Amino acid sequence: MKKKILLSVNAGSSSVKVSVYYVEFGQAPVQIAEAQISGLTSPPPTLKYVRDGKTVIKAKEVDDGMEGQRDAFSLLLETLINDEDLPQIKSKEDVGIVCHRIVHGGDYSKPQLISSETYQHLEALNDLAPLHNANSLEIVQLCIRALPTANNVACFDSQFHSTIPEHIRTYPINRDIARSNKLRKYGFHGISYAFITRSVGEFLGKKPEELNIIALHLGSGASACAIKGGKSWDTSMGLTPLAGLPGATRSGSVDPSLVFHYASDVGKLSPASTKDLHISRAEEILNKESGWKALTGTTDFGKITSAAFSPNDPDHDVMKLAFDLFVDRICGFVGSYYVSLRGKVDALVFAGGIGEKSPQLRAAVVDQISCLGFEIDEEANGDNQIKNVVEEVGKKGGLDKPRVLVVQTDEQFEMARACAEEAEFW
Ligand SMILES: Nc1ncnc2c1ncn2[C@@H]1O[C@H](COP(=O)(O)OP(=O)(O)O)[C@@H](O)[C@H]1O
Ligand SMILES: CC(=O)OP(=O)(O)O
Ligand SMILES: [Mg+2]
Description:
It contains 15 helices and 14 strands. The chain has 426 residues and is of the alpha/beta class. It folds into two domains: 4-156, ATPase, nucleotide binding domain (Nucleotidyltransferase, domain 5); 205-407, Nucleotidyltransferase, domain 5.
């Protein structure tokens, strides 16, 4: 089979990232370009564009009126097609495969070629990932129209977690209702966790089946995952990406009764609902009007961190509260997973926008869990940008000392790799 150009599209809750690869069937994809728009929840959004490993656009502010992920994707596609120095995509017909990160994949246990039937199945899951699935499907539709010769493939965040054992994925509720309404823990950020598992295995020289790690994907949405023998054993998100850790606009886990004491009529459909997405006021409050935005007024954890560490900053107290709260919730999961993995943990891994860029957050978490043997290496943790895919930021000790690592996770690469291996998508 000949080489193809593949676009890998990752629509997160605050960003859209598109990577372009040369792919040959069964081979590792070779990246040609990467374009991303970030800061969709803290305007103005910014565009970054890298071609052949060189930065072409560093952080250009783009239109404030950008409506969301679909508009961001349109601009990214335009940027790629109009770039005269990117001869691999001269016209839309040059794109052979587009793979899409779909956060909630229900019971799908492998990537799917998007037919009208798969599309309908995915549409039915929109309400279970209200910040993600409908946006991603809008991008799928745009690609079907704009790139008519390409195959569209759906890759799922939930897939990696299909190995979570029954006693962990089951909610203690009526079993018949749970079964008929498919109410269970699904888990998300799985494309990232698959990338992390392989990269850390290679770094530590361990086969996946020998690898036990606690991984933290801390971005606009944040989650923790206990990985046992290279497979997901437990994760902090649940039926939807709301459970577990707080995020940019998400509360994370709270007492489920809280919402009824927060506002009246929370069970009613929000006026913001659309024909593709039905969202109650309660879900809207917990998904879109909570988290860092509600506590501090910003969704930018970089700003929160810097004010939390500047005692003279006028917002110091509230920013420190948000920072300390995040550290507390993260350590709660690390402690619980450490026990759940029976203390057999090779490494604690930080990834995602915050995990990769906040040495202060890493240091604070590792300090709080030092009783488990984790120890930060201040110099390695530093505040320099992480350069390699995997970097060690913990102190090395004997064989029993668990490591502390940072992984520059790459969901686009992970999806491209899966597509390159599946003949059906060619
Ligand atoms: N220097 C920084 N320090 C701490 N957090 C940062 C820094 N730069 C960016 N971030 C955080 O990273 C988040 C984006 O993470 P990312 O994983 O790219 O998001 P998404 O969930 O949209 O995929 C931003 O919302 C911001 O809070
Ligand atoms: C699942 C999820 O929350 O994804 P993101 O962090 O990209 O918004
Ligand atoms: Mg993300």
